[in-house]
Amino acid sequence: MRLSTTSFLVAAIPLMLATMPAQAQEATAGERLFVKCKSCHQVGPDAKSTTGPQLNGLFGRQAGSVTGFKYSPAMQRAGFTWDDAAFAEFLRNPRAKVPGTKMMAGNVQNEAQVADLAAYLKQFGPDGGKAQ
């Protein structure tokens, strides 16, 4: 059986729309979880690096690369790009992922919480603006 482009779109659109509210819920849950991170990290248009680097545009960025933030030598030479797997591994145990990191927090073992935090942070582009 061969599907026409129209048939495919008619079938695919409800599936795409069904995932949109879930992503929004994950980001909302991640925003609530991020309250714990705010003592060291900021996101948004006015975000600055404080104790930790600002996290705008985190996903797809090279680890240890925020201009002006003084990273540990370990994070400077970490050699990975932030993606879902690296983010989850780092949150579970920062010092196992990057031995010698200055990151003190972490220990987020709950996969749903990690996914929620990732969904929240993915909203923010490099300039701190939220993707629509």
Structural notes for this entry:
The chain has 132 residues and is mainly α. It has one domain (5-121): Orthogonal Bundle (Cytochrome Bc1 Complex, Chain D, domain 2), CATH 1.10.760. The chain is built from 5 helices and no strands. It has helices spanning 5-34, 73-76, 84-92, 94-97, 111-121. Helix 1 packs across helix 5 and helix 3 (84-92) packs across helix 5 (111-121). It is globular, with a radius of gyration of 17 Å.
What characteristics describe this protein?
132 residues; Cytochrome Bc1 Complex, Chain D, domain 2; mainly alpha; 5 helices; 0% strand
The helix/strand series, from N terminus to C terminus, equals HHHHH
Shape: globular
Query: Helicity range of the residues?
Result: 40-55%
CATH class: Mainly Alpha
Average per-residue pLDDT, rounded, comes to 86
Topology:
Elements: H1 5-34, H2 73-76, H3 84-92, H4 94-97, H5 111-121
